[in-house]
Amino acid sequence: MADIRSTFRAWWQDRVDYRWLLETFESHSALRPLKFMIGSGGMGMLVITVLILMSDVGQKGSSGELQAVVGPAIAGLFALRWWLLPWPREVESLMWVAVMDIGITASNVVVQDRLLGALGIVMLVTSGGYVTIFHGPRVLAIHLGWSLLSIVLLTTMLVIGVPAHTGPGAGDFALGAAIVVANLVVTCVVLPTVQFCHWLLRLDALSDPLTKLLNRRGLDSRLARFVGRCVDAGVYVVALDLDRFKSVNDTFGHAFGDEVLVRTAECLRAAAPSSATVARTGGEEFAVVGYLRKTDIGVLAERLRNAIETIPDLPITITASVGAATYEPAGTEVEHIDARDKTLFHRADSAMYQAKQLGGNTVVVIGVQGAVH
Predict the structure, then answer these.
(1) Which end of the chain has the least Cβ crowding within 10 Å, N or C?
(2) Extents of the domains making up the chain
């Protein structure tokens, strides 16, 4: 039960790296077809809105006429925006989700046939599907809250038959309950389940199955978050390579080698600051990434080295060569940070290899000041 709670807590706290997600889709040449499909969804909403307006049970009155202009206009702008412009930044993406949610609810509120309006609220699953993929569980929770309010509002209007009611459903509480349950299943059950499964698969792809640490791909997905927000704090990278690990495997076997890797991962988690990210970047290579703040990088690197050397209950002493590099910003944030990431890791790796050339079980620290070009 504790594992289930911790898993769902980790999912709830997950912050989808929006930029990394887009880079992943782009690396597979998937962004362009995704943009076309999302824009086509907006065009589909435009067509639906116009067809309902032309129907006898569609929008009527001043509010309906206003919606008949605003609704298709927004849907058309949405489609053109996705078809013609680059993929939006995260803030704009969230803005479009809010606009579409409000627009879908407003369109169904002004429909004369209350049954049609109550059933039409299921269109919220389209924006919910987008949120499920590109945004985290907290954004999805907000969308689901709006969906729930919309479902209750439209169903209540159906059952009590207000304001003007046409079509079946007035006073039919069983029908109203059925509509609520159907919408809840689609929006509040299916979407969270899909997002949770998507998160588990993404987590598995970004994690090392042996140590449960992030792998190199998982670490890469976190770098923009660290380096992109380092204006006030600075960032450090500590690279660690276990000394003479091949001889450990040759002498004691690969099962013992795996145990050493697992125990190393555990001691690094315990010795690293709670805000740091620990990853296994290679066979016997590890990395620790975090904010400098008041951290003395030399003291931290030495603590990590000592933690490995003092792993208890092993028949031999395991040591590591440790290299550390820091980036301290010059006062302004640089938007394009890929080169800076690679340089910081390259310097940490270089420092680690210097430590290995010194005989291992040693720490070498290299500082980086200002922007890296």
Answers:
(1) N
(2) 2-205, 216-369
Q: How large is the C-alpha radius of gyration of the chain? A: 27
Spell out a b/e string for 183-216, using b for 16 or more CB atoms within 10 Å of the CB, else e. Answer: beebbbeebbeebbeebeebbeebbbeebebbbb
Residue with tokens 């807590």: 9
What superfamily would CATH give domain 216-369?
Reverse transcriptase/Diguanylate cyclase domain (3.30.70.270)
CA 269 remoteness from chain centre:
22
- Please indicate whether residue 229 or residue 250 has the higher confidence score (pLDDT): 250
**β-pairing verdict for 363-369 and 320-328:** parallel
> Which of 186, 330, 318, 346 lies closest to 246 in space, CA to CA?
318
Global pTM value: 0.78
Q: What kind and span of H or E run contains 290?
A: strand 285-291
pLDDT tens profile 148-200 = 999 999 888 888 877 655 566 677 888 888 888 988 888 889 999 999 999 99
pLDDT of 314 higher than 70: yes
- Length of the chain in terms of residues written: 373
**What contacts 176, CB < 8 A, 6 or more positions away?**
118, 155, 156, 158, 159, 169
Peptide bond before 209: cis, by omega within 30 degrees of 0?
no
